[in-house]
Amino acid sequence: MKAGGHKKLKITLISIFSCLVLIYLAGVWYFHYHLLPGSRINGRDTGWMRPGEAEKILADHEETILLRLPAGKTETLTGSSIGLSFDYSEGLKYEMKRQTEILWFIPETGERKVFPRAGYDNRKLQNALLQLPEFGEEKTEPPQNAYMELEKGKAVIIPEVAGTRLDTEKAIRVVEAAIIRGEHEIDLDKEEYLLQPDLKADSRRLVKQTEKINRFLSTTVTYWLYDGTSETLDGDTLCHWLKCSDDGCFYYLDLIDLKIRCNAYVKMLAHRKNRTYDTVEFRSTQLGRRLIPAEHVKFGYEIDETAETEELYQNLVNHLSTVRKPNYSFAREFNDFIRSGYVEVDLVHQKVYCYMNGALYYTCDCVTGLYSEQGRHTPVGVYSIQEMGREVTLKGRPDEKGVPRYESHVAYWMCFYGGYGLHDATWQSSFGGERYKTHGSHGCVNLDYYSAGQLYSVLEVGMPVIVVGEEAYE
Q1: pLDDT at 81 exceeding the cut of 90
Q2: CB-count burial class (<10 Å; 0-12, 13-18, 19+) for 256
Q3: DSSP state of 36
Q4: How far is CA 176 from CA 119, 129, 170, 193, in A?
Q5: Strands in 189-325 per DSSP E
Q6: How many CB atoms lie within 10 A of CB 122?
Q7: What CA–CA distances, in Å, run from 431 to 10, 427, 472?
Q8: Domain 339-473: which topology?
Q9: CA gap 309, 355 in Å, rounded
Q10: Residue 128 pLDDT more than 60?
Q11: Shortest CA distance to 149 belongs to which of 214, 219, 56?
């Protein structure tokens, strides 16, 4: 080859190489400001584009936010409805820095993701959220507090119910934070985002109050009554004595109201169980079973309402279960009255019997009130010795001149009712039989001197005296 040909070839090769170098350097410079060929960001072809051009393409579509709501529901928020905007500039700057422009001639492969910096209109976002049913009251269930319930005389805790209504403030904060992070799907179907009950079953306050109420309801007071029956006050009744708080979650004990209810219960018990007897059954020595009027000695039992109200109140507030008799203001049974001893005056047989501890101690004849004058009859009934005395002068009612109708001196005086009593009568020539029909007393029970002394030696004030046999004056 001629020298001129070699030189021409050399110049041509140098020219081609120079062009290639220039093209390469131009490419390096170009792609320092443009995205590399084959670049694909967020599903869009962005090769050969400046960041500003790529940002327009990336932002040139409607962004949406998918909300996952309670009960498996979903809602979609459009970008325009909440004033949603995205700034890709920072992300694209990062992509520009990470690309290798010196290898611009090698096309990019693979998908890249650029997360924008999100912006939104706070007022529009809140309005859009508040229009969703899950944020309203019509189609959602509010949370229900745990509460105390009374069942079969016992307090139990009914657990809380979460409901389906979202906590507006918390949910809006979660959505705002997710949008700022560039998230397009936000899960609000979590219990932590729901409105929570103010009071839960494990609340210390609720548990402690339930325990306190159950201590009260477990208290029982059983009364053993004189008629042989019993009455028990327990939780089935006490649960109606509790008050409920205004929010309906608690039962509590009002001590002032408790005292009132204790008094009402005692009054009810007294009304049902108090008894007084007008007559008593007595087994006479010779006359057998008799019903005797009991007008002058009170029999039966009456509850002391004041004392019993106070004791019952103390039992309940101190949780003291007990079995006991109620406080009585009066309690007397006829058999108890005569158990230790009594005197029987038998008008029919004109006899006096003195019993001590169930056994006959002494008996004698007597003379009772004059048969022929009704005002001088010895009254039938149940009595007790009112007073006793030695060497007493008995005086009758004064006449029109104020002079006693009679005066009688007795050695032994044992009064059992008004002016009626047992005493010695030395003026009587005999006792017993039918002497009372002709030589009867003014109503007293006349005894011979010895017998009067014998009775006086064992009787005492309060000793029962039973007068029977009203048929003696028929």
Answers
A1: no
A2: exposed
A3: P
A4: 9, 11, 10, 14
A5: 221-224, 230-233, 243-244, 251-252, 275-276, 279-284, 288-293, 300-303, 322-324
A6: 11
A7: 184, 11, 16
A8: L,D-transpeptidase catalytic domain-like (2.40.440)
A9: 40
A10: yes
A11: 214
Q: Is the pLDDT of residue 217 over 90?
A: yes
The domain spans of the chain are 339-473
User: Per the structure block, which two tokens stand in for 329?
Assistant: 């203001």
Residue 378's contacts (CB-CB under 8 Å, 6 or more residues apart) are: 345, 347, 368, 369, 420, 441, 443, 444, 445, 467
Burial (CB count within 10 angstroms: exposed 0-12, middle 13-18, buried 19+), residue 267: middle
pLDDT band per the 50, 70, 90 thresholds, residue 351: very high
Q: Which two tokens stand for residue 299?
A: 């029999």
Provide the β-strand partners of residue 25: none
Phi-psi label, residue 321: left if phi above 0, alpha if psi -120 to 50, beta otherwise: beta
Residue 194: is it exposed, middle or buried by C-beta count within 10 angstroms (0-12/13-18/19+)? buried
What is the spatial distance between Cα 444 and Cα 416, in angstroms, rounded to a whole number? 10
Q: Which residue has the tokens 């230790």?
A: 340
Block residue for tokens 């477990």: 218
Q: Determine what percent of the chain is predicted with pLDDT higher than 90.
A: 54
Do residues 339 and 358 make contact, with C-beta atoms less than 8 angstroms apart? Answer: yes
pLDDT band for position 61 (50/70/90)?
low
> In this model, does residue 62 exceed pLDDT 60?
no
Structure tokens at 40: 């694909």
Please give the Cα distance from 391 to 410 (Å, whole number).
Answer: 6
Q: Tell me: the pLDDT tens digits for 307-316?
A: 999 999 999 9
Q: Tell me which amino acid residue 167 is.
A: D
